[in-house]
Specification:
The protein contains 2 helices and 9 strands; from the N terminus they run βαββββαββββ. By secondary structure, it is of the alpha+beta class. It has a single domain, classed as 2,3-Dihydroxybiphenyl 1,2-Dioxygenase, domain 1 (Roll), CATH 3.10.180.10. The protein is globular and about 45 Å long.
Length: 126
């Protein structure tokens, strides 16, 4: 549905380093950067997530990144904690959404709720 989204952040360098670390396990990386402190993350040359300072950091947003597998959700969560993110839900099934909704949640430095989610069932567990 969306092509890309821009998130306002308060500290460009800190947030760029944070998102570089937490998105790496999900297969996303910094693909483009502009002199006005805009960082674009995505796969290959296609970006879909942008951070930029100077705008409002409120209201706090919830952004969920798609993960190819549950191991990457777990790696995202661990990387986020190590990078200074705040726990908002350890990796696990969230059956209230659907039986295979496996996700982890953290807060970034500006209080945005950042999620990694995998919708794939475990083999033999469908």
């Amino acid at each position: 549905m969306f092509d890309h989204i821009t998130l306002s952040i308060s500290d460009y360098e800190k947030s760029k380093e944070f998102y570089s670390k937490i998105l790496k396990p999900l297969g996303y990386e910094l693909v483009m950067e502009f002199e006005d402190n805009t960082a674009c993350f995505g796969e290959g040359k296609k970006f879909s997530f942008i951070i930029h300072p100077g705008g409002k950091t409120t209201p706090k947003l919830h952004i969920a990144f798609k993960s190819k597998n549950r191991e990457a959700v777990e790696a995202f969560y661990q990387a986020a904690l190590e990078a200074g993110g705040i726990d908002n839900g350890a990796p696990g099934l969230r059956a209230e959404y659907h039986p295979n909704y496996y996700a982890a949640f953290i807060y970034d430095f500006d209080g945005h709720n950042i999620e990694a989610v995998c919708h794939n069932p475990i083999a033999g567990n469908d």
